[in-house]
Amino acid sequence: MGGIGKTMLAKEVARKAKNDKLFDLVVFSEVSQSPDIRKIQGEIADKLGLTFREESESGRARRLFSRLKKEKRILVILDNIWEYLDLQVVGIPHGDGDKGCKVLLTARSLEVLSRKMDSQQNFVVGALEEEEAWSLFKMMAGDYVEGSELKCVTRDVAKECAGLPVSIVTVARALRGASIFEWKDALKQLRRPSSTNFKDIQPAAYKAIELSYNKLEGEEVKNLFLLIGYAYVESIDELLRYGVGLGLYQGISKMEEARDRISTLVYKLKASCMLLDEGLSMHDVVRDVAISIASAEKNVFTATGELFDGCKEWSDESAVKLYTSIVLRDIKTNVLPNGVQQEYPQLKLFSVRADHQESSSLTIPNNFFERMIQVRVVNLTYMNLLPLPSSLGLLSNLRTLSLCNCNLLGLSVVGDLKKLEILCLRGCGFSHLPVEVGQLTWLKLLDLRGCDELEVMPPNILSNLSHLEELYIGTSFYKWEVEVGGVKNASLLELKHLHNLTSLDLHIKDVNSLPRGLFFEKLERYRIPIGYFWNRKYDIYSRDFRIELNTKVCLKDVLIVQLQGIEHLGLEGLQEQDVQNFVNELVKLQGSSQLKHLYICGSHLALNPEESEV
C-alpha cells in the first residue's frame, strides 16, 4: 500500500547493490501515475553519460536500448508503477536474452507486477512489526517518549499509526517535544473516523497525516503545504509565482523577501516530514491527503487526465460558485467549454497542464475567462495558444500569468493586465516581445528563459518596467541593438533603468557590446556569462559571473567588483595588465569572499604561487 516504504526500500537496495558491487551501474527512476517516457529515458541516460541526438521517443529508445545492451551488469529500478509500462518503448532490454540488464519494479498492486508487467518474482512489503514501528517512532519523536508519565499514551499513539512508516514519521515529528495533554489530544484525533475521500489511503495513514497538518504552526505554512500538494508545485520558482500571486506571504512586498519566507516555510515542512528532502518532493500518500483537505476546507477542485469529465464538472453550477482553485493536469482532450455560463466569484487560481505529448490539440476558447474576473493566478502549460484568448485581458485582478512551454501568438492582450506582478513565458514559442509588455509598470518578475525563437525586443520595454526585481532572459535573446525586420532591438543600457533589480539571468554573447558599469551592487543572485564559449556546467551557483576578455576589454573595464558575493567566477583570456588587478581584488576579499569556484582559461600567464594561494 501507499506509505509502506517501497521507495525507501528500493533506494536501500540500490545503495547496497552499489556498495557490494553486485552491479557495475545502478539507475533509479520514478514512473508515477502519469509516466513521462522522455523523463525516464533521460534519467537512465544521465547515469550512463549518454547524450540523445534524437528528438522522437522511439529514436531515443533505440539509442538507449543499444547502449544498455553493452552493459554486462546494470540494475534499472523503476519506482511507483501504476499501470503497464512497455519497457521496449522506453528502451530497456529485458527477458532471457538480456541477462546483463536486471529490472526492479515497485508498485501498489500485485496485479500490475505479475499480470501486466509479467514479473516472475514478487515480494510483498508489509507493515512494520509493533517493536519495529516503536523503534522508528522513538527515533523521530525522541527518547523522552519512554518516560514514565508518557509511555502509555505514546505507545498507543504509535499503535494507531498501524505500522505505516509514512504515518509514524509524520505523527512522531509533529508531536516531538509535546506535553502529555497534547499526546492525549492527538490520540483522540487518531481514533476518530477518517474523512478520507481516497480509496487507496488507509484510514490510519489519512488520520496520521491530517494530525501532522493540524499541528503545523500558522496558516501560512498550512496554506503552503496544501498549495504544493494540490497544485503539484515542483520548484521554489513555481512556489514564488503561485504564492505571490495569491498573496499568501503576509507582510511581504519584495520578491527577495518572498524567497526568504518560502525557504523558511519549506524548511519547516521538511522538518515536519511533510516534504521529502529532495526539492519540493511530496510522498504521494501525503499529497493525496493534502488534496483531500484542500478540497474539503478550501473548495479546491483538482483532476488528472482522463478522469476529468469536462462537461459534467463545468455544468455543476452550485459547485463552481464555491471553487477557489481549479487545477487540471495531463489533460489530453479539449475539455474546456466554449463560453463558461456560470460565474466563478471565489476563483483565485486557474491552472491547466496539458499532456505534453498531445499539447498541440489543447486550446482555450476565446471567451473562456469572461466570468472569472476575480482570478489572481493563471498557469497554462503545454498549451496551444494561437492566439492568446482575448478574454484574458478582462482579468483586472490578475497578479501572476505563467505560460510555460506554450505555442503563442498575439501576446498584446497582456498589456491590459495593469496589476500584473509576475509574467512567466518560459519555454514558449514566439518571435516578438510585444511593446504592450512595457505597459506592465507594476511587473516585478519577467521570465523569458527558453524562448529560443525570440528575435525582436523593441526599445523601451525593459526600461519602462521600473518596479522589476527579477529578470530572466538566459540564452533566449542576444541580438541587442540589431535591426530585425525593420525594428531596431533594445540596448543593454536599458538595464541601467532597473533600479530595483535583485536577480538577473542574462547571457551576453559579444563582450564588445557590454556597456561599462552595467551591473549593480543590489544584485542578490545572478547568472551572467559573457562571451561565446561558456556552457551551463556550473549552474548550481546562485551568483555566477563569467567573461571572455580580449585586448579591447580588460577586467578593470568590467567593474565586476560591484557584483556582491560572487560564488563562481570564470575568466577567459585574462590579459597581462589584468593579473595584478585581479590578485589585488582577491586580497581585498580575503576572509569575506564567498568564491567557491574560480575558472581561468585561455591565458598563458601564471600567477605567483604565493599570490595563487589567496
Automatic annotation (TrEMBL):
The similarity comment for this entry is: Belongs to the disease resistance NB-LRR family.
Q: Name one GO biological process term.
A: defense response
Q: Which InterPro entries match?
A: Apaf_helical (IPR042197), LRR_dom_sf (IPR032675), NB-ARC (IPR002182), P-loop_NTPase (IPR027417), Plant_NBS-LRR (IPR050905)
Q: Which keywords does UniProt give here?
A: ATP-binding, Nucleotide-binding, Plant defense
**Protein name as catalogued:** NB-ARC domain-containing protein
State a single Gene Ontology molecular function.
ADP binding
Q: Which SUPFAM superfamilies match?
A: L domain-like, P-loop containing nucleoside triphosphate hydrolases
- The NB-ARC domain, residue ranges: 1-142
The species is Citrus clementina
Q: Which PANTHER family match?
A: NB-ARC DOMAIN-CONTAINING PROTEIN-RELATED (PTHR33463), RPP4C3 (PTHR33463:SF198)
Q: Name one Pfam family in it.
A: NB-ARC
